[in-house]
Amino acid sequence: MKKYDLVVLGAGISGLSTAIAWLSLRRGRVLVVEKEGECGGCVASFRKQGYGFETAHLIPEAGDLLEWLGIYCRLARYQGTLAGMYLLRGGALKRFSVPADRAAFIGTLKDAYPRDRGNVDRFFEYCRSVYEELSRLPTRITLADRLFIPFRCPRILEIADETWKGFLNRFGFSNPEIPQILDIFSHFSNLSGDRCAALLTIAAMETCLESSWYAEPSFSALPDAMRKRAAELGAEFRFNTRVTKITVQGGAVRGVLTAAGELIQADTVVSTVDTKVLLDGLLGEKTLEGSCGAWRRARSRVRMSPSMLEIHLGLDGSVDLRALNLAGAYHVLTTGSEAYEEAFDAWDRGEAALPDSSGPESSRVDGSEPFHMGFFSPSLPKGETEQTLVVRVYPVSGSPWIELRERDREAYLRAKDAAAARCISLLEKYVIPGLSSHILLRDVSTPATFARRLGSTEGACFDMLPAVSQFGMRRLPLKGPFEGLYQTKYSHGIWPALHAGLQVLDIITKGAVMRRAVRFRLPGRER
Questions:
Q1: CA–CA gap between residue 19 and residue 290 (Å, rounded)
Q2: pLDDT tens across 438-466, in order?
Q3: What is the dihedral of CA 106, 107, 108, 109, to 10 degrees?
Q4: Which pLDDT value is given to residue 333?
Q5: Backbone angles phi, psi at 49, to 5 degrees
Q6: ∠ at Cα 367 (361, 368), nearest 5°?
Q7: What values do phi and psi take at 514, rounded to 5?
Q8: Are 20 and 13 in contact (CB under 8 A)?
Q9: CB-based contact 215:33 (threshold 8 Å)
Q10: What are the counts of helices (DSSP H) followed by strands (DSSP E) for the chain?
Q11: pLDDT at 426 over 60
Q12: In the 8-state DSSP scheme, what is residue 304?
């Protein structure tokens, strides 16, 4: 029986960063256990019928992180356009481009809305100061920290309980289009502005506008480079291995148990898996009886993020996506933030939100009903000849799709077709004329797909819901309820996932990585 100093559950970005950070700072045997046959987790690239698709669409401001980790992969920076907002109001469609540069974005907003020039300046000055305070905010807040945080991070404390929508209201924008445009950054976090924590959205906006990159030849190059680096440092990997239990004895971790019945001993276990799976499956009620109250209560109060529909389209190559201004990392087509809020209200109520499954033609649209969807082209920035388009719809309730797939496979397939047809109709009507006539490949992932692929509860794609009630200082701690147990939970996305692994090692090493701060900076590069 082998014994390891560290076992990491999951070979996604946060798990790989944990392994690399551990081996960069200390010796010992490190094992990364992955239930799939490859690394990457939520960052993956795949091909279908010759078309290449990506599950990620940008890597924000990660130079310091990758340099410290010793990760070298080919990155190219988004130029010109970062994102686009297509806003349909009263039958008229208005498009606003978000430049891939902070100063350019500020200038564009001020030129488009001259009456709000002062409000725009105040907004971005405030956001920058909040972002800089992250370098002074401790990952784990001690009693002593509570005395100094009001002086070191006053603005973070000021907005700790605010949603993005509430935060935007502070600045008194006279033109209602400005909050609609800025709301695209809460969409990056897959939440509506009325739910997404302001602190998270500020970090997403500032990192993306600082610099945003895509990996060449594909986003899989990043986890592949990370796996190579971890292996160079001495990490062992075990793929196609499912862990069923974290073993605990005397209030401390003793190892993990695999589905094959093998006990792998370890003094430290870092979990990157779905939080509900960790609480209900790998630990369970009986084990948690001996833990602190916060973790026992978490089993019933933690809310996971919603799932989504993801539609992959392969085109015939004759659509000029660049001429249609579809360059950039992400675009949103919506009837307004209100539509997004309504969708989340329905999700909160547990409504099924299954499309009519009688057939794809039943979901053709006339544009009168509210809608909200995101889309991007993985092939466009890389200049690939095989044109691809990825469409995302969220929030989507997981249970109805998972149950339908188990109960009636044919009805499930019809529902997938209906959902795809509706989204294609909307894009064809408002963004890409004649889209349906150029589609050669259509592939749809539903919550049932994500539940199987990610091993998540109800197909949750982005782990814990980054709402105010469980983000920031209210999030479930990185240090687990037992000695030697940790979880890499900051937020979703490549930048937060890289940080999460470093944050865990910073706790273990008492500040050797990040000097106890939430945000990583290489020594000498603090601002």
A1: 28
A2: 999 999 999 999 999 888 888 888 888 88
A3: 50
A4: 94
A5: 50, 40
A6: 115
A7: -120, 10
A8: no
A9: no
A10: 19, 19
A11: yes
A12: B
Q: Looking at 431-476, list the stretches that DSSP marks H as alpha helix, in order from N- to C-terminal side.
A: 447-454
What does the alpha-carbon distance between residue 147 and residue 165 come to, in Å, rounded to a whole number? Answer: 29
Q: ∠149-152-157 over CA atoms, to 5°? A: 55
Cα–Cα distance list, 1 to 34, 87, 236, 240 (Å): 19, 60, 15, 19
Residue 97's identity, in one-letter code, is S
Nearest to 494 by CA among 69, 52, 31: 69
CA distance 456 to 463: 8
DSSP string covering 350-403, please? T---PPPTT-GGGG---S-S--EEEEE-SSTTTT-SS-EEEEEEEEE-HHHHHH
- Predicted confidence (pLDDT) per residue in 85-134, tens digit: 999 988 889 999 999 999 999 999 999 999 999 999 999 999 999 999 98
**How many Cα atoms are found within 13 Å in the side-chain-facing hemisphere of 110?**
14
All residues at 6 or more sequence positions from 441 whose CB lies less than 8 Å from its CB, including other chains: 48, 49, 51, 312, 313, 314
CA distance 85 to 196: 18
**pTM for the full predicted model:** 0.93
- Residue 197's nearest CA partner among 457, 416, 474 is 474
Crossing angle between the packed helical segments 398-407 and 409-430, to the nearest 10 degrees = 130
d(CA 273, CA 35): 10
Residues in the chain: 527
